[in-house]
Amino acid sequence: MTTTSLKLPEELKSRIQALASHQGFSSHAFMVNALERAVAQAEARRSFIADAEASLEDIRNGGPVYAAEDVREWLKARIAARGTGAKVQEPTPIRGRGAKPAGKSKRA
Euclidean distance between the first and final Cα of the chain, in Å? Predict the structure, then answer.
């Protein structure tokens, strides 16, 4: 483990000490925990953005696009069917791979 020094405003240091004491932690443990949560959140956000960018690229390359209402109904049906063994049919794309030809879609 390495040592890092942080210069904290006195008011922030006092708040950390009070919260850490209330929770039964040292100030050090409180700050390490806070930093671990902040790093995990930043990594999750970075991963989420990378996934969104990959999805956008897939759509630009002809990947499937679904109507939000169809996806919402599909998710509700999956939740309702959980644990029953029932198979829930995936929604049909409105554009891209797997989409029905124009004029055959449920959507106008």
Answer: 61
State residue 108's pLDDT score. 46
Q: Report the amino acid identity of residue 36.
A: E
Q: State the burial class of residue 91 (Cβ atoms within 10 Å of its Cβ: 0-12, 13-18, 19+).
A: buried
* Whether 8 contacts 16, CB under 8 Å: yes
d(CA 62, CA 95): 8
β-bridge mates for residue 65, sequence order = 95
The reported pTM is: 0.68
pLDDT along the chain (108 residues), means of 10: 93 98 96 98 98 96 95 96 93 89 57
Residue 93 near residue 64 (C-beta atoms within 8 A): yes
Domain spans of the chain?
Answer: 11-63, 65-95
Identity of the residue numbered 66:
Y
